[in-house]
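In response to reviewer comment 3 from the previous cycle, which asked for concrete evidence that the modeling workflow produces usable outputs, we include below a single protein chain processed end to end. The sequence was submitted unchanged, and the resulting structure tokens are shown without manual editing.
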Amino acid sequence: MARQLLDHYPGGGELTMTQGQRLKFWLAGLAVALAALYVLSGVLLPFVAGMAIAFFLDPLADRLETAGLSRTAATALITGTFFLVVIALCLILLPVIQEQVINFIHRVPTYVDTLNERLHPLIVELKRKLSKGDMDKLRTSVGEHAGEAVTWALNVVKRVLTGSLAVLNVLSLLFITPIVTFYMLRDWDVMVAKVDSWLPREHRDSIRGNVAEINRTLSGFLRGQASVCLALGAFYGLGLSLVGLDLGLVIGLGAGFVSFVPYLGSIAGFVTGVGLALAQTQSWELPAMVAGVFLAGQMLEGNVLTPKLVGDKVGLHPVWIMFALLAGGGLFGFVGLLLAVPVASVVGVLSRSALKRYLRSSLYHGHMP
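The workflow returned the following structure tokens.
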């Protein structure tokens, strides 16, 4: 079969493929890569995380190398500093988060009483306007849906906590990711040069141009959006804590982190924060202040953070990002979430390149002499 697909040049020993055979080759390679990703998704987390961190830190390593440090010394300095900062932040934030969670658990009965007082007039009004049969149907429907939601949430938590690879993933993130990050960052330029040497000679310039565009898109989005998420997390966490919201730091940091998905962080944080504020106090001042924090955060993000840190030239539409994250998470779990934006960037750049070729081709213009 191979001899039917490949023809030998008489004297050079090189092998040639037809256009159709090349297409089959690349499609087969893509299918093998997707199958390997699906099979190995349970153990790829520390390697994908290490590669993402190395990509994030590579420009800093290049600057230190230009300043006179060896690549190994620059990598050791950057990697060590990065993980020390992460550990220090965890040591500082975890006690505060633990205290807020404990206080929240202790105050749950108070929240229930406050909600009952708020909802009692509404329940009385519903009883007055609805018949006994309608109330029974409403009560039954709410009970069924609430039971289904609780069951689904408990099953998700159970899968996360009792999954066969859950403990392995946590341990690997703690111990393997720093090692992977060090070697990936140290050998990043070597790996790029090696992959460049494997490019098909005929299409090398075109591939390099597309890769440069992908790198520009990823650099602009990932590094910029990560900075936006950190800034928003700090702003929301500090703001909600200052206005007196219970669990404010946790909700703020969570909203900032989830802001990696466009609009999801602000919406989820707003709903959670305002809902908790309504349960925390009878007055409307706290809910209004919580809403004001998120409104100020949105103005800060839209007018300052995103234009300055991300820009408008990354070429990734928010809807496309949301679709990629949902599809990646649904197919490959947390590893899929980490790979979603890079894959979306690659698909976007290749799609734009293919569209430019189409608009220059005779397929678009018709028969050209």
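Residues 1-13, 160-164 have pLDDT under 50 and may be disordered. We consider this sufficient to address the reviewer's concern, and the full set will be provided in the supplementary archive.
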